[in-house]
Amino acid sequence: MKKVMSLFMMVILLIGVLAACGPDAKEGASADGDKKSGDAAKPEKLIVWEDKDKSKWLEAAAADFEKENGIKIEFKEVEMATKMRDQLRLDGPAGTGPDVVTLPHDQIGQVATEGLISEINVEESVTGSFTESSIESQTYDGKLYGLPKSTETPVLIYNKALVNEVPATMEDLQAKAKELTTGGKYGFLALFDNYYFANAVIGGMGGYVFGDEGGKPNPKDIGLNNEGAVKGAEFIQSFYKDGLFPKGIIGENGGSALDGLFNEGKAAFVMNGPWAYQSYKDSGIEIGVAPLPKFASGEPMKTFVGVKGWHVSNYSKNKEWATKFIEYATSEEVAKARYEQTFEIPPVKALAEDPIIADNPEAKAVADQSAVGIPMPNIPEMAEVWKPMADNLQTLVTGKTEPKKSLDAAAKAIEQNIEANHSK
């Protein structure tokens, strides 16, 4: 009986060996041959959407990726801030959309909730190569939805022909502004009626948008009218009460008015972002750039940090390979090459010490300020914050309301909007 069973098992093993040697089997491959890599079928191409006027770096990067992986990268430019998301909503379901998109991180919660982008899975060694805050910005509801490609935040920009030293504190900067503001010229200008910029003061003095609950933003805990936030609003209001800001930098045209005064050599310091560097230089201004001064208390200006990321479309049929591409696109070497062409600073830890950034004051200022700033909340409820804050900050800076009353009204409106639009 034992001999019979042994012969039977030998026959079974022999059949298995012969099958493995058959014409359809190749070492390390499936029936799809070299069309497979791991568990994912290798596509002929991946479609990548990059931001407008930012794709030049992709020419070399795409060629290298194709050489290494045998996959062509087809790319096109779509304006990121307002059009990328809307175009994905249309083209994704129609089957004509991309595999990879780029988005500002504050849109992640909304597009993830809509099912437009896919959760990604990467090794800890990959996420560990980025700054902690930049990875946090790509995370929603405990899931990772992208990898960061660049970071930006407001900094202090100054005209070297007018000043050659950065004040040590924000209180010192205000004092310097009083000294220099005269005859149609200004010491320091900021768009403090715009909550994107005002949060630096409000947050630096103890206010916050949403509280933290288990590492996630809690939209039921709004800290925009707490004691610290009111102190911040009082500090903001003092610039207007003391006549340090002209009336023209309030509202929709405020940014243009601020830029105009700086470009004309009529403002010594401005709070603005790296997007403004080139236009200032084109006006013939020799600019200096530094992180924003801390408050006398030692607390930093908690600017909002915006992180742009790479994401995998949930409509892509090639999610694994799309993920491999965004790992490649955010790797140290490729991120550096992108920075050299776009001047958008990658939040890759290793590059912070690279001379290309460390020895460039304009880039280093953004990197240093980003380290003390806070990522804009990326949950859908954040959409309900901007308008109430803008409306009430404008009544504050025009002297129509006092700080506590203004922020109480903003917080109430935000709570009501969240309840109306996001309650389940």
Automatic annotation (TrEMBL):
Lineage of the source organism?
A: Bacteria, Bacillati, Bacillota, Bacilli, Bacillales
**One MF term from GO for this chain?**
carbohydrate transmembrane transporter activity
Q: Name one Pfam family in it.
A: SBP_bac_8
**A GO-annotated cellular component:** ATP-binding cassette (ABC) transporter complex, substrate-binding subunit-containing
Fetch the InterPro entries from UniProt: Maltose/Cyclodextrin-bd (IPR006060), SBP (IPR006059)
Q: What Gene3D superfamilies does the annotation carry?
A: Periplasmic binding protein-like II (3.40.190.10)
Signal peptide positions are: 1-20
Family indicated by similarity:
Belongs to the bacterial solute-binding protein 1 family.
Query: Where in or outside the cell?
Result: Cell membrane
Q: Which UniProt keywords apply?
A: Cell membrane, Lipoprotein, Membrane, Signal, Sugar transport, Transport
Task: List the protein's name.
Answer: Maltodextrin-binding protein
The organism of origin for this protein: Metabacillus mangrovi
Query: Can you supply a Gene Ontology BP term from the record?
Result: maltodextrin transmembrane transport
